[in-house]
Specification:
The complex is a heterodimer of chains A (about 110) and B (about 120).
Chain A lengths: L4 E3 L2 E5 L4 E6 L6 E7 L6 E6 L5 E4 L2 E5 L5 E6 L8 E8 L9 E2 L3 E6 L1
Chain B lengths: L3 E4 L2 E4 L5 E7 L5 E7 L5 E8 L2 E5 L6 E7 L2 E6 L8 E8 L10 E2 L3 E5 L1
Parallel strand pairs in B: 2-11
Antiparallel strand pairs in B: 1-3, 3-8, 4-5, 4-9, 5-6, 7-8, 9-10, 9-11
Chain lengths: ~110, ~120
């Protein structure tokens, strides 16, 4: 599988600040997904994007599927302490092998009250 | 109510042993996956099964053998465990393997430690 370039690697912010992270790929993807992983848990799906240019929100989270289909970003507005965790982007390109996801290396987010 | 469950949650064993991890999903999904998360938190696909048939088999040592007795279960058996096998193993499932939604739902993970 292909590894995506996700940045930043980590962020340390104060409660109330906005956060932005992004992912880039050298290949085109059909779908971009954003997951959050809490310590000791499995990744939980936050947002799924299916069309180039698509902008989707889920509460304080907003994500966009880049127009080139090779990138995506995730914004978190007005961060709160429970936003702490590792955020992963994942790209999927349909093939005869099905829907294996290619993951970024994750962005570790720390929020101080 | 658990959607994707794995057992055990923790597994500590000696090098050279054989062990199994079990996964079950009650979402009615057709496709199941095994991922490995290393110490740097990188998630990588190992296997994928669609309706009990193997459809993805990444470059994984043949000491790892997945088995799917039915489409709700995907177990992972590991022979002759090595130190480098220590990682967190995640099971996931999605509605369809070759068409439809690719959204995958993950289990809580099994932390394997090989001593």
């Amino acid at each position: 599988g292909q590894q995506l370039n996700q940045s930043p690697q980590s962020m340390f912010i104060q409660e109330g600040e906005d956060v932005s992270m992004n992912c880039t790929s050298s290949s085109i993807f059909n779908t971009w997904l954003w997951y959050k992983q809490d310590p000791g848990e499995g990744p939980v799906l936050l947002i799924a994007l299916y069309k180039a240019g698509e902008l989707t929100s889920n509460g304080r989270l907003t994500a966009q599927f880049g127009i080139t289909r090779k990138d995506s970003f995730l914004n978190i507005s007005a961060s709160i302490p429970s936003d702490v965790g590792i955020y992963f982007c994942a790209g999927q390109a349909y093939s005869n092998s099905g829907y294996a996801l290619n993951f970024g290396k994750g962005t570790s987010l720390l929020v101080t009250p | 109510d658990t959607a994707v469950s794995q057992t055990p949650k923790y597994l500590v064993t000696q090098m050279g042993n054989d062990k199994s991890i079990k996964c079950e999903q009650n979402l009615g999904h057709d496709t199941m996956y095994w991922y490995k998360q290393d110490s740097k938190k990188f998630l990588k696909i190992m296997f994928s099964y669609n309706n009990k048939e193997l459809i993805i088999n990444e470059t994984v040592p043949n000491r790892f053998s997945p088995k799917s007795p039915d489409k709700a279960h995907l177990n992972l058996h590991i022979n002759s465990l090595e130190l480098g096998d220590s990682a967190v193993y995640f099971c996931a499932s999605s509605p369809s393997g070759t068409s439809g939604s690719p959204e995958q739902f993950f289990g809580p993970g099994t932390r394997l430690t090989v001593l």
